[in-house]
Amino acid sequence: QVQLVESGGGLVQAGGSLRLSCAASGRPFSMYVMGWFRQAPGKEREFVAAINWNDARTSYADSIKGRFTISRDNAKNMVYLQMNDLRPEDTAVYSCAADQDRSIRALLGQSLFYHYWGQGTQVTVSS
What we know:
The protein has about 130 residues and is mainly beta. About 5% of the residues lie in helices and about 50% in strands. It contains one helix and eleven strands. The strands form two sheets. Strands 2, 4, 5, 6, 9, 10 and 11 form a seven-stranded mixed β-sheet that branches. A hairpin with a 6-residue loop joins strand 5 (about 45-50) and strand 6 (about 60). The protein starts with a strand and ends with a strand.
């Protein structure tokens, strides 16, 4: 069992930056594929980024490539999402998720392969 708690969301102007954090409790965190997803009002949840459990391989949605960076600190049970050059279309609730099966499909962003989800943190980007 893993509990995930996100933080770091807020209101930012277009072009600004935010760093989201996801604190995980439960073990072993280091063996989970971790991902970030987002959901805007009236839209489906979409994949943002994921990071592998052991070799730090990452994957990103095309819409955020070059602007967002996912990272993890297994010693601290934390995963981060650094978001730069934010745009109004990035406005959404951002949630982190954990995959206990270390699935390549999870790493590639398929949400059905994630087992645990946080409650989310709101990110609002003003124009």
